[in-house]
Design a protein that fits this description.
The protein contains seven helices and two strands. With 222 residues, it is mainly alpha-helical. This is YecA family protein.
């Protein structure tokens, strides 16, 4: 499997697949995927691929029926490659960690869009129990949840552009602080292992590697 960051074309292809197979329950784009994977790598316990791959689509009922096996394998390979790249940056090169925020063009100007990334992060948080997070770090999680939960949107309506920029700037250090805290705990998640190389195809009667618990022939083979 390839290592390192995904290219712009690879990220665009992931976006296209998320749009092609997504639903109202799934994540919407690579920005939200980036946020989800960041939280999965930063929480109090190991989140297996069988959990986050299903959460990505919004539950077992929404796992896509891929057009072909090659398309499915490439999607999974790129997801794992991107996840490994995020893990390397969080753990070893924090100065190189940057959330993959979106960009919206309005009247010829580009504006940063953080909501999708933050929604993805909070979706990842929901996969674990973060209730033991110390009170001193709650503001860090709140900095992300401010943009990642619709119930908090009224708080943003009256902010000036300068105040909004300050809120945006708080997200990156918040994500790093949360990762550093959980990874330092005795039961913290271990360093991510190399994912299964998807070129090694399972047999038709083997368990599907998406984690659904079904046989491959009854799941992602189709």
């Amino acid at each position: 499997m390839k290592e390192g960051p995904l290219t712009g074309k690879e990220l665009q292809w992931l976006d296209e697949m998320l749009d092609k197979y997504g639903s109202e329950a799934s994540i919407v784009d690579v920005a939200e995927l980036d946020g989800l994977l960041t939280a999965v790598l930063s929480g109090p316990r190991t989140i297996e691929p069988s959990e986050w791959l299903v959460a990505l689509w919004g539950g077992e009922k929404h796992i896509p029926r891929w057009s072909n096996e090659r398309e499915m394998n490439r999607f999974m390979e790129l997801c794992f490659q991107h996840m490994n790249d995020i893990a390397d940056r969080l753990a070893d090169f924090p100065e190189q960690f940057d959330p993959l925020f979106g960009v919206r063009e309005t009247e010829g100007q580009d504006f940063t869009v953080v909501e999708e990334w933050c929604f993805g992060y909070m979706r990842g948080v929901a996969l674990s129990d973060w209730s033991s997070l110390p009170e001193a770090l709650q503001p860090a999680l709140d900095a992300i949840a401010l943009h990642g939960k619709e119930e908090n949107f009224p708080q943003l309506e009256n902010l000036s552009p300068e105040e909004m920029e300050e809120r945006f700037a708080a997200i990156r250090p918040a994500a790093l602080a949360l990762h550093d805290y959980w990874i330092a705990q005795p039961e913290a998640i271990p360093a991510p292992q190399q994912p299964v190389v998807t070129e090694q195809k399972p047999g038709r009667n083997d368990p599907c590697f998406c984690g659904s618990g079904k046989k491959y022939k009854q799941c992602c083979l189709h």
